[in-house]
Amino acid sequence: MPTLSTDDAVKLHYEETGGGTPIVFVHEFAGDARSWEPQLRHFARRYRCIAYNARGYPPSDVPADSERYSQARACDDIRAVLDALRLERAHIVGLSMGANATLHFGLTYPKRALSLTFAGGGYGSHPATHKKFQDESRANAEVIRGKGLAHFVDTYGRGATRVQMQNKDPRAFEEYLQQFREHSAQGALSTLLGVQARRPSFYDMTKELARLEVPLLVMSGDEDDPSLETSLMVKRCAPCAGLAVLPVSGHGINLEEPALFNQHLEQFLAQVEAGRWPKRDARSPVASIYGPSGKP
């Protein structure tokens, strides 16, 4: 079982398959490297595909101290994966929590990213919900502490943006829940407290987004309300961003609509590698709509 070490001595489990230009897949809070199986099978035909388990997700290490988890640390763990595998640059593809880490990686290490995919990202970023999301993350950590991970999975894991997959593909939905139940309670709790409850809002980073010149694909399900507004804001701010909205779809779009997700991603990567992904005028009108405070 392959592992690599981060610069703060945390071992991360990873899987890789295929060959060619590298793609690094970064999973969501309720998933792990296994969540990317439909993408690994598809893209390994042309690319070197790498998926890893974040810290707190066995068989990766599970540091007990929540201070060893943060948005900045999640960003640096992507860099640690590239460094350990001696990859100068890679396409970075993230979903939800992984999408947030992916976008932070692009903002922090733009020269290490061939492209960025921000799918289902931005939960809790909107100014109207930012504090509520942080409070709910802390409350969810207490649910795990008090009632256990299985109870948490059977409530949180069946939320309003997950029912779409349950309706479309009950078998895939049950597999997602089973894999979620196999996570570490300590790891989930620490991730909620260290990352989810403390991550900054992208609405406070509009100037940085306007300077981002890495090709960026933003994807969201049209019924994933917590992601939609922020996804549109990111697309408007970043001059090299394009937006794909998947119809009648919820949050876990790579599992819910794997063929459509793969089609959008494949076309994006092809355009990037052909040098045909466009860049808009950097003078985004959003800069005048969303000020430095991130408030409309």
Q: Explain this structure to me?
A:
- This protein is an alpha/beta fold and 296 residues long.
- Helix content is 44%, strand content 16%.
- The protein has 13 helices and 8 strands.
- The chain has helices at 37-43, 71-84, 97-108, 130-147, 149-156, 163-168, 170-181, 185-196, 206-210, 225-237, 253-256, 258-273, 286-289; strands spanning 3-5, 11-18, 22-26, 48-52, 90-95, 113-119, 216-221, 241-246.
- Strands 1-2-4-3-5-6-7-8 form an 8-stranded mixed β-sheet, sandwiched between helices.
- Helix 10 (225-237) links the parallel strand 7 (216-221) and strand 8.
Describe the protein's topology.
Layout: E1 3-5, E2 11-18, E3 22-26, H1 37-43, E4 48-52, H2 71-84, E5 90-95, H3 97-108, E6 113-119, H4 130-147, H5 149-156, H6 163-168, H7 170-181, H8 185-196, H9 206-210, E7 216-221, H10 225-237, E8 241-246, H11 253-256, H12 258-273, H13 286-289
Parallel strand pairs: 3-4, 3-5, 5-6, 6-7, 7-8
Antiparallel strand pairs: 1-2, 2-4
